[in-house]
Amino acid sequence: MRYLLGVFATVFVLIAAIFWIANSGDSRTDAPVESKTVLTDYADSSAKLVYEIRGELVGDNERQAVRITVDRNLRTIELLDGYQQKVVEKRTFPNNSAAFEEFTYGLSRAGFVESQNSDFDSEKGVCPNGNITIYKLADGSDEISRLWGSSCSKDKGTFDGNRRIVKDLFEDQIPGYRELLRDNDVKL
Fold this sequence. Notes:
The chain is α+β, with helices and mostly antiparallel strands and 188 residues long. The protein has helices spanning 2-23, 97-109, 163-171, 177-183; strands at 47-54, 64-70, 74-81, 86-94, 132-139, 142-150. The protein has four helices and six strands, in the order H-E-E-E-E-H-E-E-H-H. Strand 3 and strand 4 (86-94) form a beta hairpin. The chain is globular. It starts with a helix and ends in a 5-residue tail after the last helix. Mean pLDDT is 87; it is low at 26-33.
């Protein structure tokens, strides 16, 4: 009986060793290489940087959002109503390459394209009593980066940059930003 137990133990150890050796190779070669977006690579391009904040989940007639888009030629703010985001007010200001480059570098230092894992596949329905913010980098029709965050502490989202600095940088691109929101009764 001891002999039989010894054979079984030896066979078990051999199988476990073979399994361990077969799976202990360099797993990094099998893993897909994930490229990291470098925001400053787009400082001298036709890229657009977008900051959009959406309000609480309320009735369509009460829903509000604000979208700020900045590229090397223009700075645009849009006040949006409803879930279909009808533009109710739009203002556009000129921009230039030097200003866009500085803005891009500022956003890069604030972590505009830094991401983290989220418990949610999408921002839809998350943080119903708070705000959702979308952070987007697009180049032509290519969406390079699209991250989101929420004002609810337990629903952090995929954005891992400095929310306050990014918010301030975008708002400061629009002359009279606070007055425009106040005059249109936007509460975000």
